[in-house]
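If I may wish for something, please sit down with the protein I am sending here and say whether tokens and residues agree:
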Amino acid sequence: MPTISFNITINQPADKIFDYVTSVENHKAWQAGIADAKVTPAGPVAVGSTYVYTTEVMGRKIESKMQVSALEQNKKWAVKTVGVPNSVETVYLFEPAGSGTKVTISMDVPAGAYPAPAEAMIKQQMQKSLEEQCNRIKQMLEK
């Protein structure tokens, strides 16, 4: 499956957007379905830090983990799923764009991660999720 990506320009400086996106207390606001979010170990986020998310599906709480795989202050933040057979990496890039910042979110999904008949639908859902994340971040930071 190819890389899936979406970008948006936000009328805020990169440092403000980067801080907002990497701060675990904001994740429930811009990532759909998260009921609780925490980061371990406590303290500043660094490569190796793990975000632990709780979601609720059909009355059951499900925990998932994303580990920081890359971190360049105000430029790049990447997280990779942990504890699943086909790990997916999501990369957030922050680039100057006039008086604002271009934010690009992309996902690298390993080949064969999903059954071939479902791949197109899953890709479409992932694309929609990236678009929604970008739009929520923009909405939260430009209000």
Q: What stands out?
A: The first strand starts at residue 4 and ends at 10. Helices lie at 14-22, 27-30, 116-141. The chain is about 25% helix and 40% strand. The mean pLDDT is 91.
